Amino acid sequence: MKILSERYVPLVVTVGQVVIFPYYILWLKEASLTFTLFTWLFAAFSFSAALGYRLFQARKKPAISFIPFLYMGMGGIYLLVGNISTSFEVLPYLTLIFQVILGFLQGYHHAWHIMQNTFRLHAINHYLLVGMIMVGLSFVKIISPAIFITVFGTILFICGLVFLFKKNKDSVIFKLGDNEETEVE
User: Fold this and answer.
1) From CA 72, how far away is CA 86, in angstroms rounded?
2) Number of structural domains, the chain?
3) pLDDT tens, position by position, 73-127
4) Domain limits for position 10
5) For 134-141, which contacts have Cβ atoms below 8 Å and span 24 or more sequence positions?
6) CATH number for the domain including 169?
7) Which residue has the higher pLDDT, 168 or 58?
8) Is 58 exposed, middle or buried (0-12, 13-18, 19+ CB in 10 A)?
């Protein structure tokens, strides 16, 4: 992983997901209207994340080339969530679709990320960065969590594009685990 975007983009994505999640929970609570629906939506997210994780683990040759599209998909969901400004009758159904897609994409990404050689280093940096960013955000006075969600969605989408264009430029070898290598074109 000699290309910087391939080395640090997964860290940006995982840290960003943890930092943005409290704001996303606030939005989800407003969208779900009841506590029961809120818990069902989180259950859908969890089951979908487990499916994404399992799908990645079940593949004999992991599809690394899908990762930029995962970033753009997650970014797109966060952009849609950040730009929904009014409550309407179909919002809970739309939210369920968002939860299933976002859960699947995050589960798949997590399964891919733990297979990377830099994951151990990312785990340490992850906790440090999340703590520092959360302390910093506690001093920011923002009226709506939608602003944070939209900014993060934009960052994810840009990361996906950068990752995609770097991949198309040349073939890269990713190390999976300790002994295996997979070439991606």
Assistant:
1) 24
2) 1
3) 999 999 999 898 777 788 888 999 999 999 999 999 888 888 887 777 777 788 8
4) 4-184
5) 134/19, 137/19
6) 1.20.1250
7) 58
8) exposed
